[in-house]
Amino acid sequence: MTENLRPSGAHPSDQDPTSYPYGTAYGGASGGYPPPPPYAPATGRRKAKRPVALLAAVAIAAGVIGGGTATLVGQLNDGGGAATGSGGAVNGTTVSQSSKGTVAGVAEAVSPAIVEIGAASSAGRSTGSGVVITGDGEIVTNNHVISGAQQIQVTLSTGKTYTADVVGTDPGKDLALIKLRGASGLKTATLGDSSQVKVGDEVVAIGSPEGLTGTVTSGIVSALDRDVTVAKDDSGSSGGSGQGGQGQGGGQEWPFEFGGRQFNGDTGEQTTTYKALQTDASLNPGNSGGALINMDGEIIGINSAMYSPSSSAAGSGSAAGSVGLGFAIPVNTLKADLDTLRAGGGS
Fold it and tell me: pLDDT per residue over 40-75, tens digit each?
């Protein structure tokens, strides 16, 4: 408080006690005047500052409680859409403070942002997965999931379906961006920082293996910077209906190369190699394009390849499923490529 304090009964220095405006003595005594209050009355300006200070205190308290509050406020303001900034950063749902570090908490928070993608081509129909990154329906997936597709249908976790168009593809990074027609207010995922990932970190994978929408599995990060090679398009796929997922009638897993050897079929002549995160979280046909997620609910990778010993054996048509060797494109690769994908191009 900045007011000057005066002894009770003292007048302000610029006030002439002989010129009291009412002209009568106080209490009937000639020349007497009522003593001013011991403190100067609070001005309107001083009073106005109090609610502002209160609001500031509330804001600080909300910040201490945790980032989940800020995320919720942002979603209420923009109708659930994601905020995008420089470098392709995307913000979306996060795990609540009470559920952080649990598979159930991650699944509850992120599952609404993971979709099933059905891609129809002249060779048949395949199933893959995708990650919603904007409220109006931008979805990230693998290029091999939608390569050669003549029609793309997307199913949300709620069961609602949309038709999607390809916005941009980058076969060199095995990434693609599609957008739903007429969508709004969708739940969106948060893209994390794959440079902070360490071997042994717990992770959750969500996707649509074998067409089972919203399947959740968990494991750890098994290794970093694995050189994984995949086909740039579906022309080298073993079995035309297996481009990244389960084709009608039983398509084979997406073929890939590692350590100079080919797995799950022939990758063809046009291939691309990227540094991948390796995980033992169960991945199966249809998980391609889905999310690998840390325990804070942030996307750290886009699942892209998995090893199945039976399908790599000559003459085998069965599917043995995951044996704990799955690979994901680091999310930082996606974030660096996002503006290019939105512009419709890639390497």
Answer: 555 555 544 555 454 444 444 444 434 433 333 333
Rounded (5°) CA angle 129-133-135: 115
Q: Is 249 helix (H, G, I), strand (E, B) or coil?
A: coil
The string of DSSP codes covering 81-119 is: PPPB-GGG-B------GGGTT-HHHHHHHHGGGEEEEEE
Cα 268 to chain centroid, rounded: 33
Q: How many CA atoms lie within 13 A of 280 on its CB side?
A: 9
pLDDT in tens, 85-138: 434 445 666 666 666 689 999 999 999 999 999 999 888 888 999 999 999 999
Asked if 236 contacts 230 with a C-beta cutoff of 8 angstroms, the reply is no
CA-based torsion, 128, 129, 134, 137: positive or negative: positive
- Residues 196-231 as b/e (b if ≥16 CB within 10 A, e otherwise) read ebeeeebbbbbbbbebebbbbbbbebbeeebebbbb
**Which residue has tokens 């005066």?**
6
Residues with catalytic roles: 144, 174, 288
No. of H helices and E strands in the chain? 6, 15
